[in-house]
Amino acid sequence: MNTSDFDYILPPERIAQTPVEPRDGSRLLVVHRQSGRLEHRVFRDIVEYLRPGDLLVANDSRVIPARLHGRKATGGQVEILLLRPAAEADGPAGGEAWECLVGGKGLRPGVQVIIDADIVATIEAELPDGGRRLSFNRPTAQWLHELGETPLPPYIHTRLEDDERYQTVYSRVEGSAASSTAGLHFTPELLLALRARGVGLAFVTLHIGLDTFQPVKVERIEDHPMHSEWASLSAGVARQINETTLAGGRVIAVGTTAVRTLEWAATGAQGLDPYDVEACPWKRTAAFEGQTNLFIRPGYRFRAVDALLTNFHLPRSTLLMLVSAFGGQELIARAYQEAIAEGYRFFSFGDAMMIV
């Protein structure tokens, strides 16, 4: 399958620069997989599409203030974007060594970058993907929230007045370089309304790296080297999911990050080949913690997810390939064209799609 099969033309004015207020006032395109029907609704209308006994599973990762500004001893300006703790660091979101993207000249191993009067980063190595591994002389937890800035995707050019608007209302575990944007539409009031309806809510954690948004650059998508991200799914959540299935409820993933976590828990985390294993009817997921690099593309058989809430994704991205695998490539392509024609807002601060 070719990467060009997942390309489309998006007018620049369709890229949302600011979030809608209130959060749940964004538009919602409901895609019915069996009939192919498309419905135009408002996000808060999801209450009508969820049933008592269903379970929403969302990613509770929180975006860290990952953008830093510094200078070399010679005075040259440097911009650093923290991506993930390096392998030497302890835990998924701590330690003093980080893999980063850096902007500036002459950033070779051994060069020091002055962040603040007493905070210095040393470039330890150049990475195969063009990034750098940096070590900091003080643990980042001590100063990052004071000196760092919230990173926004490069296609957003309007300054965000409130950084919390790029966080979900339920985010709590710090570690992401980007937001789980499908969850940005939820308000506390909407979550309470869903609970009153008998819809459950569970959380997984996947710390999102910027590689998630990069376009696939190879011609055959099967040749794409999928990036890895740290994720976890607890034993309690695995039990909730399995009990939901046994009781006849549906598992609704909030965002592609939740999908990747759930599907990895159903396959790779158990040592199974994701593309060569049948779904277990009574045990859909199992607890795990660690790296996942599951590349979901058309042809994948979903084991853990029954419905999906997601935003509209960039052309030629692995996220669009995942959504096409879940909804069907032709149907999703038609839905995207209708969304463009109907004036939907795209990408991180854009409108939402629910695939049922």
Description:
This protein has 356 residues and is an alpha/beta fold. It has 2 domains: 3-63 and 161-355, QueA-like (3-Layer(aba) Sandwich); 69-147, QueA-like (Thrombin, subunit H), CATH 2.40.10. Helix content is 17%, strand content 26%. The chain has helices spanning 144-147, 188-196, 235-246, 256-266, 318-327, 329-341; strands at residues 27-31, 38-42, 55-59, 61-63, 67-72, 77-85, 97-103, 112-116, 119-126, 132-136, 173-176, 200-206, 229-233, 251-254, 288-292, 307-311, 352-355. The longest helix is centred in the C-terminal third of the chain and has 13 residues, at 329-341. It is globular. Residues 89-95 have low confidence and may be disordered.
The termini sit apart by 25 Å
The gyration radius over C-alpha positions equals 20 Å
What name is given to the CATH topology of the largest domain?
Answer: QueA-like
Run of helices and strands: EEEEEEEEEEHEHEEHEHEEHHE
In helices, the fraction of residues equals 10-25%
Which class do the helix and strand fractions yield?
Answer: alpha/beta
Rounded average pLDDT: 93
How many DSSP-defined strands? 17
Number of domains: 2
**What can be said about the biggest beta sheet?**
9 strands, mixed
Considering the protein shown, what is the CATH homologous superfamily of the largest domain?
A: QueA-like
Give the neighbour order of strands across the main sheet.
2-1-17-16-14-3-12-13-15
Give the percentage of residues in beta strands: 25-35%
User: Shape from CA axes?
Assistant: globular
Query: Could you name the ranges where pLDDT drops below 50 across 5 or more consecutive residues?
Result: 89-95
CATH structural architecture of the largest domain: 3-Layer(aba) Sandwich
Count every helix, treating DSSP H or I runs of 4 or more residues as helices: 6
Q: Give the class-level CATH name of the largest domain.
A: Alpha Beta
